[in-house]
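User: I'm putting together notes for a lab meeting next week and I want to include a structural view of one of the chains we've been expressing. I don't have a solved structure, so I'd like a prediction I can at least talk through. The sequence is below, exactly as it appears in our construct file.
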Amino acid sequence: MPKIIGLTGGIGSGKTTIANYIVAQGIPVYIADDAGKKVMQQQDIIEAIQEKFGNDIVVENKLNRPKLAEIVFNNPDQLQVLNAIVHPAVKNDFKNWLEQHADSPFVVYESAILFESGSYTNFDVILTVTAPLETRISRVLQRDNSQREQVMNRINAQWTDEQRIAKSDFVIENVDINLAKSKIDEFLKILSINQ
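Assistant: Thanks for the context. Below is the predicted structure for the 195-residue chain, given as structure tokens.
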């Protein structure tokens, strides 16, 4: 069975850039957010969400994602209800994915809410990507075309870098991408030696 590396970081930290670099090194990476979107298209999941959030959350057999987001991101209790439906499905999807990559010495599980979801306890090594707050904000503003207040709300809903770092095995600051890549190379080398 491969060693499982948990990769996390706050919004705008650049963890997707780091994940893509790791993929380029030939290491399989599972993106939990993409998997969540995929499982939310499954009929049984749509029906379970509809049961909890009402009929108008589904339009033409598809989730009304903006409406659902509006509900859950303004109400932590409703977010927990949604997570209770989606997280087990993602966990099962990851289990199947892991079986397909059983020959790899390492795999990476990338998730913004690795700690918040409690799933960090399932991994052999935790890697956290950080960046200064203003850098993160400007990255998200450019990427999502959103307002600063919206970005701050999302940042404040996540763990702080300090909280993540305290529970991580490795930390990479992602300000200069070349420096960050060389740190990833070091990290992967350490993993290979300790395998």
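A couple of points you could mention at the meeting. The radius of gyration is 17 Å. The beta strands are 3-9, 29-31, 58-59, 62-63, 106-110, 125-130, 170-173.

User: Perfect, that's what I needed.
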